[in-house]
Amino acid sequence: MKICTIFGTRPEIIKLSSLIPLLEQTFDHLLIHTGQHYDHEMDQIFFEELKLPKPKYNLHIGSSSQGTQTAQMLEQIEHILTSEKPNVVLVQGDTNTTLAGALAASKLNIPIIHLEAGCRSFNRRMPEEINRVVVDQLAELLLPADEDSVRNLLNEGLPENKIHLVGNTIFDACVRNLHLTEQNSILDELNLTPNQYILSTIHRAENTQETELKNIVDAFNDLGKKIKIVLPLHPRTKMAMEKYNLSFNKEVIITKPLSYIQFLTLLAKSRICISDSGGVQDEALVCNIPCLIPRYETEWPRLVNAKKNYLIGNKYSEIISNTLRFITDDEQLNKTKSIIYPYESNIDQKVIDIIKKYFTTPLQSTSKKEQKKLKIGLFAYNFKHKKTQDGILNLFLQNISIDVIFAADPVDLKFYQSKIRVAPKDLSHEHPKDIAKRLHIPYHVVIHNSAECEQLIKNYDLDLGIILGARILKENIVNAFKIGILNMHPGLLPENRGLDNLKWAILQNYRQGVSVHLIDKNIDKGNLILRKPINVYEDDTLIDLFLRLQNLEQSMMIEAVHLLESGKREFEVIGEGNYRKAVPEEEEVALLDKFEEYKKKYQNLPQ
Prior knowledge:
The protein is of the alpha/beta class. Helices cover 42% and strands 16% of the residues. It is globular, with a radius of gyration of 25 Å.
């Protein structure tokens, strides 16, 4: 059997470094390097150091816009695959190389293996998230790294017989090379003392925008007055800093791109690392170094949930306060390091065994159980709103057809303006009208409870409505749909009905979670489809809980739609529960004090 492995970035080279020799030994194996990382020292040096075979093809694509870069790769990869005629194509992760390789293979009807399948940040504005979802839909064999990824794939309706849990190949690669760090001289070259510096990598698109990058640069410049920071500067970050006229103080040690062993040495001997890289989050686990992630979500939530790694955001104050905890408090540092989180080994051999078994026996039928495609209408806000934006994109990327969007203009409800914030500030959203135009979805600005809206529902002959932003819907609107209207409620029904569910759960000692239900004429009532709690941790903030609930709402929405597509209609009727309005000012004053006791009660409960 002939396998073609396609890669193009430093993380892909590292994560494949232990697997490639086994592929070479076991199969007729071909390597294509797209050259997505265009700096010689960002990729070529890894081949020499990790003793990997030279790729048969190097495309030298380099840097371009997302679309241009992917298109150039797609054109050249298609030509090579047509000539080489591999039986299977293997891609890893979530890069533009991954996407281009999978698209080229799928157009030629070549089966695709996706290594590290099922990772989700549930942030549809990240280009990597688009790549992950699309490649998983195209792949014949899905090899996820953890149970969360398996659940994500199943929730998206992918056939179970395609999915094989293997673990993360970065662990094998890191363990294989960790012993070489003892002989490396990089600390002496940079005049560093073990445990007395921070190692950082910053390269993600969301962290190289002007505001976010300035926050990071300013924070590092101030933190550098207390502890040395070592930053191997990624070309994308370097270009952004030049574009926005930003610079680091001399206390921040900027290095050229490092070899893998040099980087691993710096990581293993650092006090902490600050990185937005998914690979570094796992490498930090092997080295037992706390990783602070300057983002608001991660593809590897298991390490954050275990308190080995921490999401700290990319605002100046968040970076400063969270980093100071670890550089001034040995107890906090040692507490994190004392947490034992086991990781897998011999993953590469497991991958080989699964590929041999899957492709050397007659291919299994991977067709899904015949499902009825539902005609779906979305209730949305006619203004920028995170739940509306994420829901539209999530449904589209899961190949769930959206027939129409009903968008309502804002209404001033004159609620009490809470002094305790649970939602993050300054999140960038896209207007749903612009998303609908791009995705060619009919878009009607209409009052949701109007006769006009009811008539539109009948005209479109809709099966299901989904609430991504709406006020209370009346019975005639609910009944206009053949199945009903789906709502994702950020509280466990029936006990936590109404508004301010996150706050009321704390004040009334309810567990936090999400319910998905088909609504009826009563508020937060109807038929319960799904109900799932979330984890709560000792050092959670209210914003942590809010984001965790939002992410769960999105994944449960997809799961519920698939259940309804399968024909399931019998669901539990939601019992009685007290409806609560927004938390009044006199009760809200006790919230923060109760929150500390609440976390102690509910942390680390089983799902």
